[in-house]
Design brief:
By secondary structure, the chain is α+β, with helices and mostly antiparallel strands. The protein has four domains: 309 residues, ATPase, nucleotide binding domain (Nucleotidyltransferase, domain 5, 2-Layer Sandwich); 68 residues, Actin, Chain A, domain 4 (Alpha-Beta Complex); 127 residues, Substrate Binding Domain Of DNAk, Chain A, domain 1 (Sandwich), CATH 2.60.34; 87 residues, Up-down Bundle (Substrate Binding Domain Of Dnak, Chain:A, Domain 2), CATH 1.20.1270. The protein contains 15 helices and 29 strands. A hairpin with a 4-residue loop joins β15 and β16. The longest helix is centred in the C-terminal third of the chain and has 33 residues. It is globular. Bound molecules: adenosine monophosphate. Adenosine monophosphate binds next to α6 and α7.
């Protein structure tokens, strides 16, 4: 297929632009490209400005600011400064609930399975929109440094990211005006940066140990015929360099008078990080880090640092052992070890790895902060067709998916996925007693199915009548090596199933594919906004349905005033449904949600007391 790129501003096709690799990190993000003169990957940015903090500050008038400026607002405006948004991407409140106190901004605590939203000064943001702001900033920087347009990128994600988190990352790219050529696993990118996997005749098993500022991941990969397979992943999304700093702070606090603790805390954290970096490389081995001012005198040497953080290091090694066990491998079966993340600069990290993998040398010659972005750039270069020495496997030219509520396109197989492949996703019913489900299959990049190309449909009938949300319908998309798509739908509780076979490329010329891509990119921003509006409307409709049913069944639990207010709030929400502004609908949902939350509790209490009333106690 012809390679194309598109100038979004002019809407014209261009034959030359810069294709980049982006490491969209939890703490920092970084962009890299392959220098056409040297053929080598390089990070983009001036010294000291390579890392863009993944922080978005929303100003009082609702304007988002990204990077270093935003990071400064972390202390002055914690409630309107969003950090670690990657941890929220593609997640529901239920997923992140346990760590809610960690965030200084308001995450809407809708106790359901919907994707989380963040509220800042009456405006509602999804993690997708906020990540899009970070990606836009990276795109802008890359364009201003190189003077070229950047419309295409490879974006990396942790290997454990599920489908929803990957889709959210892809959507964020779209919103930022980027065609995401591929979502690549971070450990795969790190291996590529070291050239591992580029020679398709080599077969290797690799361990990637990634210890960053706030997260720890370890993955075992198998590369064969140029294909990377993740054999296992382990880690801790709340363990990183920050925890090592905290141990130093705790160590120092032991020697400080209690009355100093609270006010000293913030400055001690910064000093602890400085001390850590010093003892880990800035000083001669026997030297000691010291700091003294009018308030306190502090010291740290490498030996004590190693001792007080031993339990954290042990934790990472334990995860590594688990990852090896999951992959059914022993350390001597590993061919390469790659380290990623700033915290792998702590000398004991490499020492522990070296003693476990005695037979091989750890790959650590590249900058551990940059290695993921560098690898993403290599993959981007290959996908852009700039490397004739690397054979690319066949890929799907356009995304494939099904239509969901509100006429939205739900992608199961993204464009550029290597084939053969298989993707499975679970769905459920939206109405009580629903016994049929029509599954319409579409191809294309637009957010609304009406704008994509319909490939076929199948009807799954005979679903046993159950309350909405209970049936579990698994839809599987399979593409074989010839590009034939088979769609299967199965209701898991009853076992009823149906399938169809479709030739996805039939009737589409290269020109058709190009036109569809051009349409999707020139409409990307509006499309994503439309999707969010449709999602908000669908959510509001479902909420009104649930609340109305609750009132019908449980009116006795509520006072007259409560019933009246609930109905008024439902009506108010109904009247927002025709609005184009999603924030108005979301505000209505939020208000109704807050008001009705205690009712659910009353229902629970009622259920418990009637259950107790039903139990009888045997007389002795
Ligand atoms: P990353 O998230 O990969 O950018 O990693 C940032 C983490 O690496 C932070 O916790 C830093 O304190 C830590 N770090 C950076 N340089 C060093 C160093 N020389 N020694 C120890 N830790 C470091």
């Amino acid at each position: 297929m012809a390679k194309i790129s598109i100038n979004i501003k002019s809407g014209t096709l261009e034959k030359e632009d810069l294709v980049v690799g982006i490491d969209l990190g939890t703490t920092n993000s970084i962009v890299a490209f392959v220098n056409p003169d040297t053929g080598k990957p390089e990070v983009l940015g001036k010294a000291g400005e390579l890392l863009v903090p993944s922080v978005v500050h929303i100003t009082h008038d609702g304007f988002p600011m990204v990077g270093n400026i935003a990071r400064q607002a972390l202390i002055t405006h914690p409630e309107s400064t969003i950090f670690s948004v990657k941890r929220l991407l593609g997640r529901s409140y239920k997923d992140v609930e346990a760590h809610a106190p960690y965030y200084t901004y308001r995450i809407l605590d809708e106790a359901d399975e919907k994707l989380v939203r963040i509220e800042v000064n009456g405006k509602y943001f999804t993690p997708i929109e906020l990540s899009a702001e970070i990606l836009s900033e990276l795109k802008r920087r890359a364009e201003s440094i190189t003077g070229k347009t950047v419309n295409r990128a490879v974006v990396t994600v942790p290997a454990y990211f599920n489908d929803s988190q990957r889709q959210a990352t892809r959507d964020a790219g779209k919103m930022a005006g980027l065609e995401v050529l591929r979502i690549v696993n971070e450990p795969t990118a790190a291996s590529l940066a070291y050239g591992l996997g580029l020679n398709s005749s080599e077969a290797k098993t690799i361990v990637v140990y990634d210890l960053g500022g706030g997260t720890f991941d370890v993955s075992v990969l198998r590369i064969e015929d140029g294909v990377f397979e993740v054999l296992s992943t382990q880690g801790d999304t709340y363990l990183g360099g920050d925890d090592f700093d905290r141990e130093i702070v705790n160590h120092w606090l032991k020697c400080l008078p209690e009355k100093l603790h609270l006010e000293a805390f913030k400055s001690l954290r910064l000093l602890a990080e400085e001390a850590k970096r010093q003892v880990c490389g800035g000083l001669l081995f026997e030297e000691m880090y010291t700091h003294s001012d009018e308030q306190f005198k502090l010291g740290l040497d490498y030996g004590s640092f190693e001792t007080i953080t031993l339990h954290l290091m042990d934790k990472t090694m334990h995860s590594l052992q688990m990852a090896l066990k999951d992959a059914k491998l022993t350390p001597d079966e590993i061919d390469e070890v790659v380290v990623v993340g700033g915290s792998t600069r702590m000398p004991f990290v490499k020492q522990r790895l070296a003693s476990l993998f005695g037979h091989i040398k750890v790959n650590d010659t590249l900058n551990p902060d940059e290695v993921v972005a560098l690898g993403a750039a290599v993959e981007a270069d290959v996908l852009a067709g700039n490397r004739s020495d690397i054979l690319l496997l066949d890929v799907t030219p356009l995304s494939l998916g099904i239509e969901t509520l509100g006429g939205l396109m739900d992608v199961l197989i993204p464009r550029n996925t290597k084939i053969p492949c298989k993707y499975v996703k679970s769905y459920t019913t939206s109405v009580d007693g629903q016994v049929n489900m029509g599954i319409n299959v579409y191809q294309g990049e637009r957010e609304l199915t009406a704008e994509n190309r319909k490939l076929g449909e199948l009807l799954l009938s005979g679903i046993p009548a159950m309350p909405a949300g209970l049936p579990k319908i698994e839809v599987a998309f399979l593409i074989n090596a010839d590009g034939i798509l088979t769609v299967e739908a199965k209701e898991l509780r009853s076992g009823v199933q149906q399938h169809i076979e479709i030739k996805p490329q039939y009737g589409l010329s290269d020109a058709d594919v190009e036109r569809m891509l051009l349409d999707s990119l020139s409409n990307a921003k509006e499309d994503v906004a439309k999707r969010m509006q449709v999602e908000a409307r669908t959510e509001a409709e479902q909420m009104i349905y649930t609340v109305t049913r609750f009132l019908e069944k449980n009116a006795v639990l509520l006072s007259d005033v409560e019933i009246k207010t609930t109905l008024e709030l439902c009506n108010a929400l109904k009247s927002t449904l025709t609005q184009l502004d999603k924030d108005t609908i979301l505000k209505g949902i939020d208000t109704l949600n807050e008001y009705t939350r205690p009712f659910a509790e009353r229902l629970m209490n009622k259920a418990v007391s009637s259950a107790l009333a039903g139990t009888h106690i045997d007389k002795i």
